[in-house]
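A brief tutorial aside. Many learners find it easier to grasp structure tokens once they have seen a single protein encoded end to end. The record that follows does exactly this for YdhG-like domain-containing protein. Read the sequence first, then the structure, and try to relate runs of similar tokens to stretches of the chain.
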Amino acid sequence: MVTSTATTVDAYLAALPPERREVAAALRALIRRHLPEGYAEAMTWGMPTYEVPLDRYPDTYNGKPLAYVGFAAQKNNYALYLMCVYSDSAQERALREAAAAMGTTLDMGKSCLRFRALDRLPLDAIGTLIASHPVDEYIALYEASRATSGSAGAAKNTAAKTPAAKNVAKKTAASKPAAKKTPAAAKPQARAKAVPKRG
């Protein structure tokens, strides 16, 4: 990933060639037009980001502000990072369906949407997605995902304290199939079958 040493988004845009600056500026305008209050524009990870300030939410796994959206002008394409998609598969499906409706497909990983031209993106759907998570709801979604993955036990306890986190956790749990329990009596038999007989 190409990173920048610029300290402000204005400086980042100014350093781009004119045609790439035009696309990056349009992305910035789209994000800012739909961004809920409480997120801050910054330069983190060498690219423009829209994040939850640390004074609002310091309990992140890496000590950096909780990223919500980011974008970058790469060498051969552009990248739009939608972190709420990483935490919410329903949002990803909605985005892909919006792209299919306009006759295109998305080049998208867990949260990174790569593209070469803005007209290949479902911009209205992206705007709706960005607008869909106020800061408190996004923090709750983040905490619930950490609790579900088991990566932070403390986050599980914290998430349980907020009503929004409880709702997110319930939806996440309901979407997963129940694990089948193996009867205790069956375990020794299964183990015995796996051991070859000696002649």
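Self-check: The chain has a mean pLDDT of 80. If you spotted this yourself, you are ready for the next section.
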